[in-house]
Amino acid sequence: TPGYGDSPPVEMALTAQGRSAFLGRVLQELGMQRPVLISPSMSGRFALPFLLAHGDRLAGFVPIAPVGTKDFTAEQYRAVQTPTLILYGDRDTGLAPQALQNLQHLPKHRVAVLSGAGHACYLDKPEDFHRALLGFLRQLK
Fold first, then answer.
1. Which residues are annotated as catalytic?
2. Where along the chain do its domains lie?
3. How many other C-beta atoms are found inside a 10 Å radius of the C-beta of residue 137?
4. For the chain, is the Cβ count within 10 Å smaller at the N or the C terminus?
5. pTM score of the predicted model
6. pLDDT along the chain (141 residues), means of 10
């Protein structure tokens, strides 16, 4: 995620609109047509504004306890028609419950909880994570 860790700060990353535009440019430069966007943790600052503004450009959305879910209203989430798999580890007692509380307003969502997994559930339980992800992707076809 630009501006986090060792990555250089990105001026346009200062606003939700700028982060959405940045992600849109990345997808455009990569030539991606209706990708499935997987958004763990800090990437939520980019993925959520993009989802709310351009969800129709995505085939699916997989939030994994992303940050920033409380920055948007239930009404904003209800307007999104992108199929969504809300995925998290049951040992993530910080971000996961808050993310679920907000993201459950997405009308086309389902939930997958990985037992015994923490915040980075894809690292803690990779087989369970891939099973849930592949099941969701198959449904999109």
1. 41, 92, 119
2. 34-138
3. 14
4. C
5. 0.89
6. 54 80 92 95 94 96 96 97 97 93 97 96 97 97 70
